[in-house]
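To fix ideas, we quote verbatim one protein's residues and fold tokens.
>
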Amino acid sequence: MNLDQLKSYHDYRSVEHDLGILLRFIDLSENHYCTNSGEIRKIILASCSAIESCIPLIQKELDVYENKKSDESIADFIYRILNDQGYHLENLQPILHYYQFNPWKERKTWWKAYNTIKHADKNDNNILFFKAAIESVLAFFAIMVFLTRKSGIGIFWHQHDLVKINEKGLGRSINYLAQIPPSLIKIFE
């Protein structure tokens, strides 16, 4: 793992820790998805800005240096370049407290929340901020799994992790997960 990946890893652990503290006070249920607070907004800002900073790392890893299309969000751009190279993020479905999420399937939700906060948009009544915070951290998790897939040290597979990976439906398109032993994937079952 190089220094840039290590910085991103520490950024991820920081937002994961913040989400863990938040989950002590707000129960993870669909009834609370619309909850909004300064702490929730901080988590969205931290995880999405860290995701933006991972673009050069992803491009370097893939040896792809194309530019973002003008009408394309950063989340859509990352999704596209990884998908074009055979890394299908929608197959990576983290489970958090028994709830299964697929942040890359509906990436516009958490990215829209990020832009709403960043640009101080007053039209934020329809945004599910708590859900967006969770999905932005899980999207960052998926990027970190991709970036650290060659490290071989299993940095995301210890008992204190908030998330686990749903192994159901993981095809060979998720070949970067092949190095993770099944016994570690099942750690929370």
Observations:
- Residues 3-89+102-147 form one domain.
- Residues 157-162, 166-189 have pLDDT under 50 and may be disordered.
